From TrEMBL:
Domain VOC: 6-119
Pfam family of the protein (one): Glyoxalase_6
Taxon lineage: Bacteria, Pseudomonadati, Pseudomonadota, Betaproteobacteria, Burkholderiales
UniProt-listed InterPro entries: Anthracycline_SecMetBiosynth, Glyas_Bleomycin-R_OHBP_Dase, Glyoxalase_6, VOC_core
Name of the protein in its database record: VOC family protein
Source organism: Massilia cellulosiltytica
Length: 121
C-alpha cells in the first residue's frame, strides 16, 4: 500500500491573515479564494514539489526566524524580482543559478522568507 503520494497543501499562521493573503495576491499573483486559500494544479507545466527537512541550526531560512520556507515556481525570475523591487517589496540581493534552476528570495510583510524558483529549461 502506498502511503504518501505528494504534498497536499502548505499551511501557516499569520498575525493578519487577510492582509498577508492580500500581499501574496498583489505581489505574487496567488489567486486566494473566498475560503482563504489557493489551489495549484500540476498539469501544465508538469512539475514536482520538493520536500526536505533541514537541521535546526541551518541558516537556509535566514533572515526569517520562521521554521519553514515556501518555494513558489515562477516563469521569469528576473522579471518578477524586478517587479517586486519596483513595488517596494523586501527582495534579497542574492540569487542562485545552477543545474536545479534559478532561485531568488523576498521577505513577506510578516518576516517570512519566500523562495522563488525558475526551473531549468
Amino acid at each position: 500500500m502506498k502511503r504518501v503520494t505528494g504534498i497536499g497543501g502548505v499551511f501557516f499562521q499569520a498575525n493578519d491573515p487577510a492582509a498577508l493573503s492580500a500581499w501574496y495576491t498583489r505581489h505574487l499573483g496567488i489567486d486566494v479564494k473566498p475560503w482563504g486559500g489557493a489551489a495549484f494544479d500540476w498539469t501544465d507545466p508538469k512539475g514536482t514539489t520538493a520536500w526536505s527537512v533541514f537541521a535546526a541550526d541551518s541558516d537556509q531560512f535566514a533572515p526569517s526566524r520562521a521554521p519553514f520556507m515556501i518555494n513558489y515556481r515562477v516563469d521569469n525570475l528576473a522579471a518578477l524580482l524586478q517587479a517586486l523591487r519596483d513595488e517596494g517589496c523586501n527582495v534579497l540581493d542574492r540569487t542562485d543559478d545552477g543545474e536545479c534552476g534559478k532561485f531568488g528570495w523576498v521577505i513577506d510583510p510578516e518576516g517570512n522568507k519566500v523562495e522563488l524558483w525558475e526551473p531549468p529549461a
